[in-house]
Amino acid sequence: MSRYIVSGKIPLPEIVKTVKASLHLWSEKEIENLCKLLPKIDNGRKTRHKKQQAAGVKLKKKQTEKK
């Protein structure tokens, strides 16, 4: 979650600082919005592998066309 907050993919909730840590306070409405939003955010690992596979397929096609 903190990665998505830093990258700006999800809105920043209210932050409360205690002695040892800072905490994010989520309201019920914000949680509902996140449940709708999170499945739509692309996972970097999954998209990276899809891109690599697509690039590999293109290379194989070019190599077979040359032969």
Q: What this model shows, in words?
A:
This protein is mostly helical and 67 residues long. It is 58% helix and 12% strand. The chain is built from 3 helices and 2 strands; from the N terminus they run αββαα. A two-stranded antiparallel ribbon has the order 1-2. A hairpin with a 4-residue loop joins strand 1 and strand 2. The protein is elongated, with a radius of gyration of 20 Å.
Strand order within the widest beta sheet: 1-2
Report the structural category: mainly alpha
Tell me about the biggest sheet?
2 strands, antiparallel
* Alpha-carbon distance between the two ends: 49 Å
**Average pLDDT reading:** 78
Topology at a glance:
Blueprint: H1 2-7, E1 14-17, E2 22-25, H2 28-37, H3 44-66
Antiparallel strand pairs: 1-2
Question: What is this structure, in a nutshell?
Answer:
This protein has 67 residues and is mostly helical.
What are the key terms here?
single chain; 67 residues; mainly alpha; 3 helices; 2 strands; 58% helix
